[in-house]
Specification:
The protein is mainly α and about 80 residues long. Helices cover about 65% and strands about 0% of the residues. It has 3 helices and no strands. α2 packs antiparallel against α3. The longest helix is centred in the middle third of the chain and has 25 residues. The protein is flat, with a radius of gyration of 15 Å. The termini are far apart. This is Isopropylmalate/homocitrate/citramalate synthase. It holds the Pfam family DUF7219. InterPro entries: DUF7219.
């Protein structure tokens, strides 16, 4: 396994394949990876809990903004 694959794992998309859904899935995986890194930094004392909160909040706002730009219906 290459270092990049280990550090940044990607899972294949399962579901109805459309460009918007594929992009959403990629953005979701990137969001989860970044939140994981921020959590590890905070857990190990490299950043404060407040800084961790603000970083995750900013990531969420970026992710939410990207989500709104895509034509994806909520599944219920």
């Amino acid at each position: 396994m290459m270092k990049e694959q280990f550090l940044y794992p990607r899972n294949p998309y399962h579901g109805k394949l459309t460009p918007d859904r594929l992009l959403f899935n990629a953005n979701l995986q990137e969001f989860a990876q970044k939140v994981s890194i921020i959590s590890a930094l905070e857990t190990n004392g490299k950043i404060t809990p407040l800084e961790s909160y603000h970083r995750v909040k900013n990531l969420w706002e970026e992710f939410h903004h990207t989500r709104q730009g895509l034509d994806i219906q909520d599944s219920a």
